[in-house]
Every structure is written in C-alpha cells, then in structure tokens.
Amino acid sequence: MKHFNIIALLGLLLFTDPATVHAQPVRMAVAGISHGHNSWILGRKNDSAVQLVGIYESNKALAEKMMKKFKLDPGLFYHDLNAMLEQTKPEGVLGFGTTLEHLSVVEACAPKGIHVMVEKPMATTVDHAEKMIALAKQYKILLLTNFETSWYPTTDRSYALTRDTAFMGKIRKVVVHDGHEGPQEIGVSKEFFDWLTDPIQNGGGALMDFGCYGANLMTLLMNGEQPRSVTAVTSQFKPHIYPKVDDEATIVLDYPSAQCIIQASWNWPYARKDMAIYGERGYIVTKDNNNMKAKGKSGSEVEYRLSPNETGTYTSPFLYFADAIRKKITIPRFGAYSMENNLIVVKILEAAKQSAQSGNKITLQ
C-alpha cells in the first residue's frame, strides 16, 4: 500500500493537469530594486494572479531598507541574481534596477526560459535593445516594457478613436507632454537619483526619462511605422542639480504623413502625462489617465471620464504580464508593451541624443 501511494504521488507531481498549473499564481521575482517605482511590486500583496517569490538586489543596505519599509520576509532577498533564479524558479522577472542593467537581466533569464518585463525605456542603447530582443526570440520568452501610460483608459480610448477613420481621418500631428518638477524636486530616493541622473546608467536625463513616453505612444498610434527623421533640442536649466544630463528636451519626429512633438521635462510646474492628437477631421486631447475630450468631423466636442471597465484597460502591469505568461492575452506586435514597439522607441531616443549633440536632423535607417 505504501508503495502504491508513492507511485500515485509521483504521478500527481509529474502529470499534473496543465489547467491546474495555470490556475496557480504566476511565480514572479524582482531583479534590482533601485528604481523609484519599486513600491508597485514590493508593496503588492500576493493574490490569485501573482506570487512574489524572490528579490535580487546587490546593494545590501538598500535591500535591508526595503525589507523594513515593506515588512518583507528576509528569505525573499538574494544578493546574487543567478542564485535567486535557480532557487526560486520564477516564471517571470521584473526589472526594477537601472536601465543599463536591463540587458544583464535578460541575459540571465532568457536561457532559463524566464519571461521578462523591464521598466521604461527598454534599454539605454539600440545595441542593447537588439541584443535583448535576439535573446528573447532565441529562447522564446516574452520581453515587455512597462509604461505608466499603458495603464491609462484614455490611452486605450484614444487609440480606438484613431482607428475610426470616419471620425478622425489620418493622423497629422501629435503633441505629447510628459514630466514633472524634477527628480530632486519631487523627492526621489538617493539610490534612484544617483542612476537616474547618470548619462551611462540611465542613458540621459529628461530626454530618456520622459521622452520615451511620447515615442512609445506615437509608435502605437502609427502602427509601428518608424519616423523618417528625428530632431531634438536639449537644455540644462538646472546644471547645479543635474550637471551630467539634460533636464529639458523637445523631440520632433517626422513621418511621411504626420509629425510628432515630444516635450519631456524636469521643469514642469506640476506632474503631467497628456497628449493631443490631431487628424484630418477631428482631434483628441487627453488630460490624464481618466479624462479626455474629442471631436470628430460631425458633432460637437465630447468630454469623457473613463473607467478601466469601459475600455478593458489593465491598470496593473503585473496582471497584464501574468495573463500574457498564462497565454490569456496576446501582446499586439506594436502594442505599447511589445519589444517591436520598444526597439523603435530606443532608436528614436538614440537619434534624439545624437541630434541634440550635433545640432543636426538624424535620419533613421
């Protein structure tokens, strides 16, 4: 009888119904916690969708601080990334370290078949972005980039309205405003400030930090069309605070049928993430995540106060990632999270830095 029970138990372990496995929470780990948005996951409680199984952070003092702040089990923390991956066996990893570290996270995870979501932007350089995508394709893993504007009902409704050519006509001009008063001014942590204002670890200043939003949204709106050229101007209005990087950037994207102006700043008098889309016959203006207005060829201007239920928007990037891992959803090829979209984003950012440095328009290949 004991022999039968052992065999039965082995059978249960080896031949578990895949449907049962998929009913379990997705095992997720975190690679790096120096990003200021780490509270999104460290402060999240485990639920039926996501289970936090490990946290890698090489800075022991930072790990100790976050452990105490969020009252986390010390057993979750590791100071070696590969050791964490081997011992916790996550299905997905969230990159909350420096942008420069994103490539090393994918290099560690991809050969093990572990899916990855990194914070925006995908990479500091096109070279890094292309290496990350090559690894994702080779090992057949998901590679997502998380933007706050991806959680906005106004982004989903705007995209849907632009697909209605009878309402908008072709897109002709898009103006995107993103940023805040500045990292120091809003009180980011020292760990975040140190790399966010470093031209190597972040790749730049406001241009990288907030220019990526407009590039991501415009690539979504243009269905993955790459601009013909990129022109940018950057400034240091506060060199006493940000001596190594720009704190103000304006980027102009030129397409055969449209233009996009991206205004990224650490000098706004208030935090903002909004955009205006102008078509041949209508316009859309978003104010924030829930409020927008639009006017088509016929009819008067309509104001919207949207909820996620109305637009089917995922307001949690972790749930979106979990559902993608469980194959409950498919990532659109040029969707805001997709690696195809975000390669174009990094190309735009790299060209913008080259343009700002040289004073020339940069043609994209």
Your description of this structure?
By secondary structure, the protein is of the alpha/beta class. It folds into two domains: 2-148, NAD(P)-binding Rossmann-like Domain (Rossmann fold); 149-305 and 338-363, Dihydrodipicolinate Reductase, domain 2 (2-Layer Sandwich), CATH 3.30.360.10. Helix content is 37%, strand content 22%. It has 15 helices and 15 strands. It has helices spanning 2-14, 18-22, 39-42, 60-69, 81-88, 102-109, 126-138, 153-163, 165-168, 183-186, 190-196, 206-221, 308-311, 317-325, 339-358; strands at 26-31, 50-56, 77-78, 92-95, 115-119, 143-146, 171-179, 229-235, 248-254, 259-265, 272-279, 283-286, 291-295, 302-305, 362-363. The strands form two sheets. The protein has a nine-stranded mixed beta sheet. Strands 3-2-1-4-5-6 form a six-stranded parallel beta sheet. A hairpin with a 6-residue loop joins strand 13 (291-295) and strand 14. Helix 6 (102-109) runs parallel beside helix 7 (126-138). It is globular and about 60 Å long. The N and C termini lie far apart (70 Å).
For this entry, give a set of tags:
365 residues, alpha/beta, Rossmann fold, Dihydrodipicolinate Reductase, domain 2, 9-stranded mixed β-sheet, 6-stranded parallel β-sheet, 37% helix, disordered N terminus
The domain count comes to 2
User: What is Rg?
Assistant: 22 Å
Class by SSE composition: alpha/beta
CATH architecture of the largest domain: 2-Layer Sandwich
Q: Which sequence of strands runs across the widest sheet?
A: 14-13-12-11-7-10-9-8-15
| Major sheet size, sense and barrel closure | 9 strands, mixed
Q: Kindly state the percentage of residues in helix.
A: 25-40%
